[in-house]
Structure formats: C-alpha cells, structure tokens
Design a protein that fits this description.
- With about 350 residues, the chain is α+β, with helices and mostly antiparallel strands.
- It has helices at about 40-50, 90-100, 105-120, 135-150, 165-185, 195-200, 220-225, 230-235, 355-360, and strands at about 5-15, 15-25, 30-35, 55-60, 65, 75-80, 155-160, 185-190, 205-210, 210-215, 240-245, 250-255, 260, 270-275, 280-285, 290-300, 305-310, 315-320, 330-335, 340-345.
- The chain has two domains: about 5-230, Rossmann fold (3-Layer(aba) Sandwich), CATH 3.40.50.300; about 240-360, Nucleic acid-binding proteins (OB fold (Dihydrolipoamide Acetyltransferase, E2P)).
- About 25% of the residues lie in helices and about 35% in strands.
- The strands form four sheets. Strands 6-7-8-3-9-10 form a six-stranded mixed β-sheet, sandwiched between helices. The protein has a five-stranded antiparallel β-sheet with strand order 13-12-11-14-20.
- The longest helix is centred in the middle third of the chain and has 18 residues, at about 165-185.
Length: about 350
C-alpha cells in the first residue's frame, strides 16, 4: 500500500493545456475514483500517475518520494486497461505469468502468486484457455488477475467496465469492491459513470476541463455539491434547476413561484440564482406551487418518473414511489422539499451554501 500526492500537476501538449494545476492527496488504502465527462482529463491524469505520460510541471509523490523521473515499470503500480490488453496467443496462466517472468522472478514464486490470484478471482477453471475462448467478464477478471500477481503498491483502473453489458458491469463493480476490501491496497479508478463512482469510492474527484471541481466522500458531493456542475453530474437522474432572483429572504422563481430561504444560504437582494432540487424531492400537490406540464411518464411498477416542463420551459423530472395517475399533457403543481434544495449563483455557478453560518448555528 502507498499514499499518493499530486502537487500543482500540469500537462500540456505544445500550447494546449489539458491538466491545470491539480492538487490532491490520496491516503494509503483508499479507493479513489476520477469521474467526469469525456475529454475532462481523467485518463490523462491516471496515465501521468502511472508514468505513461510525462508531466509538464508539478510533482507526483508516492509515500513522500517524488516519482516524476522514475520509469513506469519501477513505480510499483499495476494498471488495468479498458481494452483488457491480453495476449491472444497465450493461455490465461501465461498471460498472468508473463510480467513476472520478465522480472526474472523464480518459477516457484510465480506459481504461488498466479495460483493465489486465480483462487481469489475464481478463475481456476479458465487457466488453460486462450482469451478468444472467454467472455468479456472473464477477460476482465484475467486482466485484474494479471495486476494482482504483481502485488503493486497502487492499482490503477482505466474505465475497466465500459466494454461490458449493464448487468455484468453491476456484478464486476461488486467484485472489484470486494477485491479492494480483501487486499486493502490503494486503488485509483477512472470512469465516466457517476453510478460506478458513487457505489465504489471512498473518495471521488469530479473533473471538468482538466480541473478538479470537487474532491471528497461520495455522499458529501451528493449532499453538498460545490457548484452547479457537480450538482448536475452527481446523482441519477440529474438534479433539476430553476432560475430565479433573491428578494427579501426569498427566491422569486422565473416561473412565478416563491421559495423562502433560511440562514443556510449567503445571498443578497437582486442576486440571480438557480435553485437545484433532485427528482425525489419534488412532489405533486393540490396547493399552489411550481406549475409544470407533463411531457412524458415512465411507469416502472414500484416507482414512477414524470418528465415535465416548467412554464419557462425548464426541464423537470419527478421521481415518485409507486404508480402514478398522471398522464402526458397533464398540468400539475409541484412542491419541493425545502430541506433538500440547493442554491447556486447564476453567473459563477458556485454554491450559495454558507458553511460558516451553518457551523455557527450548530
């Protein structure tokens, strides 16, 4: 196991900057997930940690030792790729042994490590097969096994489940989480899927355009997103946003509704804001609320989703337990859970949540 520290890390290709001064500390034994949309720099950052990409500026340190100039093979890391990267002409056992043989490890030690990894990953019956005889999930287990036998200080995963179908992705998420629990190694995992991030991570780094928008525990990001981007990216379905203006301790929404504010928000009169509310915190009401027109309904039996448009044509998603009587074309009124709402400055996108105010009241 090892801890990892990134200090003002930059990456440029010529005049194009792709990573902009990232600072981050990952403790020994943590499972950290880099998440963000395609092109945000998460895979580039992982490859820099691995030593497969040179850094332009800053330092990467493992257990306090700067590794900028240490070759990838000597950093004590193991990487699992999206493409599996298995040798098609070799058996499963040969694929798992190959890296250790290149290190001139004694055959007895190789046999021991490969055997233990095979038992751990339940792939013993597959050891004589070639990759072409395996399913996608089996190939991914082999790729993970090849990393396990190296006994690395840190595991690196680069979107390892993106080639699998939805059901198999769920099963493999659980297997990787169990592997982390058994081994206790530091793991860094790259994905564009925020559900993977939420279900697997001890810590999440949300990236956008080569910058870390927020870094913290999954539920901290969900409950207190630092800005509108994180709020919209973390959580499924995405958070709803309604524009308005702050006036006399209220948000006067552009669709005509009003919402009182408590002392948890630092705002000023006349400030343009966006009120954020998750789908499960919106409910239909007979009272006056947020007017919405239903444009689609999904009945899933035990739960329902209403897809609506506000009077200002803002998209709104409502998640209800059980079944609904609402149908496409209905005009409905919506109430929100005031304890679960978020407020963001319209211009900067930053959260209006006042940490100091909340701390002083507790």
């Amino acid at each position: 196991m090892a801890d990892l520290t990134l200090s003002n890390v930059h990456k440029s290709y010529g005049k194009v900057d792709v990573i902009h001064g990232i600072d981050m500390s990952i403790a020994s034994g943590e499972f950290c997930v880099f998440v963000g949309p395609s092109g945000c720099g998460k895979s580039t950052l992982l490859r820099m940690i691995a030593g497969l990409e040179e850094i332009t500026a800053g330092d990467i340190a493992m257990d306090g030792v700067v590794v900028n100039q240490i070759p990838a093979a000597q950093r004590g890391l193991a990487m699992v790729f999206q493409s599996y990267a298995l040798y098609p002409h070799m058996s499963v056992k040969q694929n798992m042994s190959f890296g250790l043989e290149n290190l001139n490890m004694p055959k007895a030690e190789i046999e021991t490590r490969v055997g233990e990894a095979a038992r751990m990953l339940q792939i013993e019956p597959l050891m004589a097969r070639k990759p072409g005889q395996l399913s996608g999930g089996q190939r991914q287990r082999i790729a993970i096994g090849r990393a396990v036998v190296r006994e690395p200080k840190i595991f690196l995963f680069d979107e390892p489940l993106s080639n699998l179908d939805a059901e198999l992705r769920v099963a493999m998420r659980a297997e990787i989480a169990d592997l982390h629990a058994r081994l206790g190694n530091t793991m860094i995992y790259v994905t564009h899927d925020q559900v993977e991030a939420m279900t697997m991570a001890d810590k999440i780094a949300v990236l956008r355009d080569g910058r870390v928008e927020q870094f913290g525990k999954p539920l901290d990001l969900f409950n207190r997103p630092a800005n509108r981007f994180v709020a919209g990216f973390i959580g499924s379905p995405s958070m709803n946003f309604i524009q308005g203006v702050v006036q006399s301790g209220k948000v006067i929404l552009d669709n005509g509704a009003e919402q009182a504010l408590n002392d948890s928000y630092a705002t000023s009169d006349g400030q343009r804001v966006e009120l954020g509310i998750r789908a499960g915190d919106l409910t239909t009401t007979d009272a006056r609320g947020i007017h919405a027109n239903v444009i689609g309904v999904e009945q899933l039996g035990s739960e329902s989703y209403l897809y609506c448009r506000s009077s200002r044509d803002e998209p709104l998603t409502v998640h209800q337990r059980g079944q609904t009587t609402a149908t496409k074309g209905d005009n409905i009124s919506l109430a929100l859970n005031t304890d679960a709402m978020h407020l963001f400055d319209l211009e900067s996108g930053q959260s209006c949540f006042d940490v100091l105010s909340v701390q002083s009241s507790t």
